[in-house]
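Aim 2, interim progress: modelling of the coenzyme A-bound target.
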Amino acid sequence: MKFEERELVLKDGRTCILKPTSPEYAQEMIDYMKKTAGETDFLLRYPDEVNFTLEKEKEILSGLLENPYAVMMMAIVDGHVAGNGSINGIGYKRKICHRCSLAIALYKEYWNLGIGKAMIGYMTELAREIGWKQVDLEVAAGNQQAIRLYEKCGFRESGRRHNALKSDDGTYSDEILMYKEL
Ligand SMILES: CC(C)(COP(=O)(O)OP(=O)(O)OC[C@H]1O[C@@H](n2cnc3c(N)ncnc32)[C@H](O)[C@@H]1OP(=O)(O)O)[C@@H](O)C(=O)NCCC(=O)NCCS
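Predicted structure of the complex, ligand included:
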């Protein structure tokens, strides 16, 4: 969906712009998915699992921009992509269509500047405007930084999925399920 740009001043004094992720940023988004997947073990994809062609990525981003029930938000600092976040419905069946799910990842050099908190705040505001009643998310049990941030943004733990994640080195980790009522 299209939404208003929002500016915020970061902890280091720079300005960050939050705006809809548009198809012109397709190549930047592919680069971003690949690089962020390699910077942390807490994302679902490995870098070699990012295989979108430029055309496909453009098509996906155009579809999301025109979809009034999808939020795709990018953070820009000094003209560079700092990160991306999204909110999407869980499904269309009537018993679950009150719920949406949230995802977010920033390049490591932009962690701890306040971008995550601002993006989650803005994305949940938009989710409320769209009409969803609850935001759900899953986070790796070891991802303390993200869990603390989600708690600060009003999310609560609702459960734990045993051995939900298996890394290439063969180790397993649980996922924490979190929710926020809107
Ligand atoms: C998780 C992520 C989005 C957080 O974004 P961010 O911009 O770094 O977060 P913010 O700067 O807005 O806020 C961080 C907050 O967490 C706190 N925090 C930071 N590091 C922390 C740590 N190691 N332990 C506990 N709390 C921590 C800070 O105190 C800050 O709170 P404050 O602003 O009230 O002081 C970002 O680190 C990221 O992209 N990580 C990699 C991808 C990822 O894990 N995504 C989530 C998958 S579910």
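Residues 6-181 form a domain with the Aminopeptidase fold (CATH 3.40.630.30). Helices lie at 26-39, 54-66, 115-130, 144-152.
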